[in-house]
Amino acid sequence: MAANATTLSWLRFEELVNQATALARLRCIGVENFLENGEIWTETRFEIVELNKGLLPAVVSVRMLGGRVGNLHSRIEGMPAFRPGEEAYVFLWGHEGEPFRVLGWSQGTFRIARDPRTGVERVTQDSAEAPVFDPRTRQFRHGGIRNLPVAIFQLKLRKGIFTPASARMSTTQ
After folding, report:
1. How many CB atoms lie within 10 A of CB 46?
2. What is the pLDDT of residues 136-151, one digit of tens each?
3. In terms of Cα–Cα distance, which of 165, 13, 30, 31 is closest to 89?
4. Backbone conformation region of residue 138, classed left if phi is above 0, alpha if psi is from -120 to 50, else beta
């Protein structure tokens, strides 16, 4: 039996940068699914390739709802899933002593793909494929970053991180 009922509220890139506890380019090194209090969870372990904001341990654990345990499968629409070896820029949110979460789920996940011919790396936001609710327009929209060269994405990150929050708010409203 399947049911789809996830609605995400749109977060602008600047909001993701501002609200993230940490943000980094990460490489997935392992995925574990488990059952806890009647819910299926996935704990993904990452190593840091590049730290952009915040403090992170050498191995970062990210916990997300959903996964597969035995014959049970729980999938949460908009919740990212990672495979070992895969790299992504991930916007993280968390409290000390707890596993991190992905901020904005698919909105806070930016997958990295390398063009096999040119070697150029490009970033695509997971939410670029899914409709997200924009509270300002009160409509669902497709948006997000698609096929942006990593070098340009890094400039966008640095601009967001080093621009004071008050200046970001006045230019984005």
Report:
1. 24
2. 888 877 778 999 999 9
3. 13
4. left
How many whole angstroms separate alpha carbon 55 and alpha carbon 38?
32
Best CA proximity match to 129, nearest among 111, 149, 154, 151: 111
| CB contact at 8 A, 65 and 76 | yes
pTM: 0.84
Reduced to 3 states (helix: H, G, I; strand: E, B; else coil), residue 83 is coil
Residue-wise pLDDT for 64-123, tens only, equals 999 999 999 999 988 999 999 999 999 999 988 888 999 999 999 999 999 999 999 999
Q: Which among 133, 5, 125 has a CA at the least distance from the CA of 75?
A: 5
**Whether the Cβ atoms of residue 93 and residue 103 lie closer than 8 Å to each other:** yes
